[in-house]
Amino acid sequence: MKLISRTGPAPRRWLWTLVAAAAALQFAVPARASVALLMEEPYGQFGAFNPTGHAAVYLNHVCAVTPTQLRTCRPGELGVVISRYHKIHHNDWIAMPLAPYLYAVDEPSDVPKSVTKEDVTRLREAYWRAHLQKLAPAKADGSVPGGEWTQLVGSSFDRKIHGFEVETTPEEDEHLIAYFNDRRNVGHFNLFFHNCADFSKAVLDIYFPHAIHRNFIADFGITTPKQVAKSLVKYGKKHPELKMSAFTILQVPGTVGRSHSVDGVAESLVKSKKYLLPLVVLQPEFAGALAVGYLSEGRLHLPKDAPIFEIGDLVPANAQDAATPVASAAPPPQGIIPASNVPAVTPAPSTAQ
What we know:
The chain is of the alpha+beta class. Helices cover about 35% and strands about 15% of the residues. This is DUF4105 domain-containing protein.
C-alpha cells in the first residue's frame, strides 16, 4: 500500500486557514480596549434651563448581559454606553449597547440618514417593545409609557456628542465589570451632588484614580460634564502613553431641533442675559466673580477639526454577521478613532485640579 505523504502543500493550506481564523477574531473587535467620556450637548426646554448637558461613558470592550449586568465583549460586539439616569426602574446606572444608545436600532446598517420627530418616536417605540419593557413597563392598556426611558435610545437624534477617548487594558475592564456587578444598583440621583457627571467621574476613577476633580470656582463644586472632560484632557496630556484622542458624533440630520453648546455653571450664568443682567444690577461683585471664575477656570477649547465618528467604521467591512466574524485583509479599527488622526484637545489655562 502506498502511503500518502503529509509533507506536501496540505499542511500549508491548514496553516493559512488557522492564520485566517486568527485574523478574523482579531478584526472582529477593536484591537485595543478604550474608555471614552461622552460629553453630550443640552437640548430642548430642560437644556435651555440647565445647559450643562449630559455625561456618559463608552466602553468598547465591555458589553452587557442585561442593562444592569456587565460582561466582557464577544467578537463582533461594539461595547456599551453606561450612565446614571433619573427615575428609570429605580436603578443607579444602566448600560446600553452602542448602536441602540446612539440610533435606537440594533444593527449599524439600520442607522437612518435623517429623521423627523415622528421617525424618532417610531424608532424608540419599536426598540422599547423589543427590549426595554422590563425597564419601562407598558401602561395598563399596553401602550408606550411616559418617563425618561427615551434617554436610553437614540441620543444622537437629540444632540451632538463630543468624545474623549483614552486607552485601557483588559485587566482594567475586568476590574470595572466586577466592581459594578458586585454592588447594589439602586438609584439615588441628585442633580447637584449625585448626577450623571458624578457617575462618569466614578467610572473614570476606576481606571485612573484621582484623575477627575470638581471645580469649586467655575462650577461651585457641582460636577459637570464639561469639568469631567476638562480633567480627563488634562490627565491625558500628563500621560501621553494613554494616547488621548477626541472625536465628534454629529446629531442626525432632520427636522428635530438642534442641540446647543455645553456650558459649566458659571459659564451658563455669564452667557445668559436673563441671569447676568439682574446680577450686575443687584450683586455687581458677585457678577464680576462669576466672570472671572469662568474666564480663569471654566473654559475648554474643543478641536474644530475633530474626526467625525461613524459607527459603520467599527464593523468589519465584509462581516456578514457581527456574531460570526470572517477574515478580512483590512486593518482592524483602533478603538473609536485612530489616535494618530486626532488633533490635540487643549483645555484653557487653568489652575483647577
